[in-house]
Design goal:
By secondary structure, the protein is an alpha/beta fold. The protein has helices at residues 2-18, 22-25, 28-39, 52-59, 72-84, 96-115, 131-143, 165-169, 171-179, 182-190, 202-208, 210-230, 252-257, 274-281, 284-303, 312-337, 342-349, 379-388, 399-408, 412-421, 423-438, 441-451, 458-478, 488-518, 524-541, and strands spanning 46-51, 120-126, 147-148, 153-154, 157-162, 194-200, 234-240, 269-270.
């Protein structure tokens, strides 16, 4: 395994030092040792991720009748008892879906046996709504030979993925229930007293808008940190960030430094989208700079951010102000999203239906088990569609209403202090300002006038109204005369890109209209041209989905 190889190479290095072979020892050999220490023989450590429903679907076939109908709180003791027992569940006679889930766990065990423990470390349970969702996966892991509390075996760790606002608000309760249970606490101890929790930025944004999403994720991290400290556990937060601001994107350094104190304790995990990997790491010089920025921010957040940076009095005022901003923003956002005609407007004014034809994306754009409308649409195409048409609703909508509510409540001085002294708030405002600068409602108007039925075009007026309010409130708060007024290089970069994007977007509108008009008889060359414009706009705006 990797450790044995490093031991052999270290022996060679020590021998070379002892016999005046320093040039080889500190050159090629040392670089080889560093590479193997970083990548191992497996090159990358994998995470496995599965929906919580898949585990319950398997368990309903082997647990007592009526298992699925039980509440989260009733399932928990039943599953904990199963996890603690010496006999694993019987897994014979499963249906196809159940067998597929179980086979995944067996494959994990096989890979760890063949390649060592570093090949797979974490099993992530998406759509975790209660502590029982995580224990369900551990029970199946036990049946597959991955976990055995009695024999002190825990080959992998289990991490909840908290995605929607409701789940983020229940984060502390879920972790408290898990760590307060002696059986699960024993499993965490076997994993080095490290508990990983993944936070989803995309679904919370689609569900509640940018302000509420960012605030609830921030609050969840504080609560998770406190619960982990209470039980003497190291918390490893896994940030499911996307490239766009609507999905948690933005400058990595600022994002890490803005995290709550104590939430980065020498380790952090983040997702990087394919398009972002290309932008950040395709060239060695860029890759080095981005890794250095991430490392610097992680060190700063770990070493210099070990306690509150604000007084309890200030923090209480800021929390109250952010709650007011979040509530008003959420109400404004849901007024738009809950309108019964919005799905029709969204699909008409954006090229989102073409996303399935593009050779990108790790999953289908729709969830197969959800109802129609926006509920079935995944968060990535939701952001992608709005961005292609330059409306970029997920990156700023509702923020103006939130800031206005706080200002009218007499919080102007508090807002100014938050902007000056609170990393979280200043980073949030900076990211919103950047998405406002990328929004172009004149371009969006061409999409709407050409592609959207007349009776639905009023939505653009609603979006423009909130856009104008948000720009006004941001400029009032920051004291600037124009968006990005203090970031000349970025403003100029976006301006130059717009010159190239304008003809591409005009082409896209025209091609989208023709493809829709011709329907199934559309010329393949037309469709290919349309897809190329989508790729072009995505490249020009960089963080599109």
């Amino acid at each position: 395994n990797s450790a044995e190889l490093i031991a052999d190479l270290t022996l060679m290095r020590d021998s070379l030092f002892a016999h005046r072979g320093e040039l080889i020892a500190t050159g090629l050999l040392e670089r080889t040792i560093r590479s193997i220490a970083a990548f191992g023989l497996t090159h990358a450590t994998l995470d496995i991720r599965e929906h919580s429903d898949a585990h319950h679907n398997l368990l309903k076939q082997v647990m007592p009748a009526g298992y699925l109908e039980l509440s989260h709180s009733d399932k928990f003791p039943l599953l904990i008892k199963e996890l603690a027992s010496s006999a694993p569940i019987k897994t014979s006679g499963l249906d196809a879906a159940g067998q597929k889930t179980f086979d995944t766990f067996k494959a994990i065990d096989d890979l760890i046996e063949r390649f060592g423990s570093e090949v797979i470390e974490t099993y992530i349970v998406s759509m975790t709504k209660g502590a029982d969702d995580l224990i369900a996966s551990a029970v199946i892991g036990k049946a597959a030979g991955l976990v055995d509390i009695d024999k002190k075996v825990a080959k992998i760790g289990f991490a909840p993925l908290l995605e929607t606002v409701a789940e983020l608000r229940a984060a502390g309760e879920i972790l408290e229930k898990l760590l307060s249970d002696p059986t699960y606490r024993a499993l965490v101890k076997l994993r080095g007293d490290v508990q990983e929790v993944m936070l989803g930025y995309s679904d919370s944004n689609k569900d509640a808008g940018i302000a509420t999403s960012q605030w609830e994720i921030h609050r969840a991290q504080r609560i998770l940190r406190d619960v982990a400290m209470k039980y003497g556990v190291t918390l490893r937060l896994f940030h499911g960030r996307g490239g766009s601001v609507g999905r948690g994107g933005g400058p990595t350094y600022d994002a890490l430094v803005a995290l709550p104190w104590g939430s980065v304790d020498g380790q952090i995990k983040m997702t990087e989208q394919g398009e972002v990997i290309s932008d950040k790491y395709a060239l060695p010089a860029l890759a080095r700079e981005n890794v250095e920025l991430t490392l610097a921010a992680s060190l700063e957040a770990t070493i210099l951010n070990r306690g509150p940076r604000q007084s309890a009095e200030d923090l209480a005022k800021w929390n109250e102000c952010m709650n007011l901003i979040s509530d008003s923003s959420f109400a404004r956002y849901r007024t738009l999203i809950d309108h019964p005609d919005l799905p029709a407007y969204f699909y008409a004014s954006t090229p989102v239906e073409q996303l399935g034809n593009l050779f990108l994306g790790s999953r289908p754009s729709r969830r197969p088990d959800a109802a129609g409308g926006l509920d079935s649409l995944r968060a990535i195409p939701w952001v992608f569609g709005w961005t292609q048409s330059r409306q970029i609703v997920p990156g700023w909508y509702g923020v103006g209403s939130g800031l206005k509510a706080a200002r009218e409540a007499g919080k102007t001085d508090v807002l100014q202090k938050m902007l000056k002294e609170w990393h979280f708030f200043s980073t949030f405002i900076s990211n919103v300002e950047m998405t406002l600068a990328k929004t172009d409602l004149e371009t969006a108007k061409r999409y709407v006038e050409t592609l959207v039925p007349a009776e639905l075009q009023h939505f653009l007026g609603t979006i423009k109204e909130e856009f104008d309010l948000t720009v006004s409130e941001i400029l009032t708060l920051t004291g600037k005369t124009s968006l990005l007024g203090d970031q000349v290089v970025l403003a100029r970069t976006l301006q130059v890109r717009d010159t190239y994007l304008a003809p591409l977007q005009l082409l896209q509108v025209n091609l989208l209209h023709r493809v829709r008009t011709e329907g199934e008889n559309a010329d393949p060359a037309l469709i290919r041209a349309l897809l190329l414009t989508i790729n072009g706009v995505a490249a020009g705006l960089r963080n599109t989905g």
